[in-house]
Amino acid sequence: MLEKIDLSRKLGKDEYKAAAGELRERLGELQRGARRANLPIIVLFEGWEASGKGTLMNELILPLDPRGFRVHYVHSIGEDDQNAYWPPLRRFWDITPPRGSIGIFSHSWYRLVLDGAARTPDSKTYEDISSFERQLAQDGAVIIKFFLHISKKEQKRRLLKMDADSSSKWRVSAKEWRENENYEKRATRIDEMIQYTDRDYAPWTLIEAHDKRHAVVKILATVANRIEKRLGEAEAPKDEPTPPEGETAVSQAPLGGSTLSPSVLKNLNLNKSISTEEYREKLPKLQEKLRELQYELYKVRRPMVIAFEGQDAAGKGGCIKRLTQKLDPRGYHVSPTASPNDWERAHHYLWRFWEAFPKAGHIGIYDRSWYGRVLVERVEGFASEDEWRRAYGEINEMEDQWVRYGTIIVKLWLQINSEEQLARFTDRQQNPEKGWKITDEDWRNREKWPKYEEAAEEMMLRTSTTYAPWVIVEANDKRYARIKVLTRAIETAQNALGMS
């Protein structure tokens, strides 16, 4: 592909001056329009060393209000880098721009496939990148990707010139010369990268970067046209949503009929219980075992994620208290998931969960989780049907990436029946020490029990995978539920660590 690019294209001074002036004025107006429309914009620059990324990025930001954009320089990850403690894409979720803002990236997540001459990315890496970009695009982001192309001869000429200048000599290292020596091999990698990740929601634009004037105008025009197009689409009437690329008809189809009709929770035996004596005997032993496993996880740098979902008053807090009671507090954190605040709403709904992901060797415990999108947001209408339906695939993709990174995932649904919930609500209301646990919202949610149960059934059907299955905990008896939670967490960790 790259060898077919015409690198001789040039733009005269007068033509450049007229075109660039008009485009800069237009870009300033479009930035203001994007801010009013709450449109997040991502512009990333990849390219050969010495292809002019810094210079061309500067030309792009000149007409922009500096309060509305942020530039990110993405460096390679070294062994001592803090980013090495998290899944590869986590650091990029962390710096995605909020709605109404522009994120400009000098290098990007494509470091994952371009860094290291010897490392060959597998197809899963490309799938992860495409999934990341698709999820952001479906959430409204405009993604503009530039690759700055120069020839091997031109790259060598520029490197020699930089090396001879004392003010730029520091920018030329053995890495830059290696790239020039291995130009053909790297060009094959770049061709592959573009082929696998050039999608309609995040297309690549190749920039012929021999002539600066031509490159500047092409970049300014591409950014302006993409933003303008999206602003026009935002004002146009919405068509019926179609299943996102990569999702099957089953994942989009509404549940119903004899084949897919859910029945897991309705057929559950909630009479399971254990005696006080058995509980007191088992609990400390299981807690000690979990603490031992915590140290094993730390030694091998395996993160563990434990997510709790369930009806109100199902006992999530009590289970979490017993789960953490004997753990080393330096090696875990509990994330209570409440309604997103303004800053969290300005990002993709998964953004805050990527942020809260435990670093390698640590345990992350979630009191409610990313499944809120397909539970409370679905039932209460905070997410559109298109949003919560595509969330099943997005969540599965996220968990798949976590597991391939080495994460041990335990997903727990605590189930109680309506009568038990009413008894617990009444107890909370009448007990001064528990009164803070009950709110008017809890009573309102109780009235929607059938809708929440339907949403939970479909959630488990769509997202109980081989790599991150759901564990249903019969929770009418609190003692039984706490022992089952600890037991399943231990068994899952032991199996993953090869200790069973």
Folded structure, characterized:
The chain is α/β, with parallel strands linked by helices and 500 residues long. It is built from 21 helices and ten strands. The protein has two domains: 234 residues, Rossmann fold (3-Layer(aba) Sandwich); 239 residues, P-loop containing nucleotide triphosphate hydrolases (Rossmann fold, 3-Layer(aba) Sandwich), CATH 3.40.50. Helices cover 50% and strands 12% of the residues. The strands form two sheets. The chain has a five-stranded parallel β-sheet, sandwiched between helices. The chain has a five-stranded parallel β-sheet with strand order 7-8-6-9-10, sandwiched between helices. Helix 3 links the parallel strand 2 and strand 3. It is elongated and about 85 Å long. About 4% of the residues have low confidence.
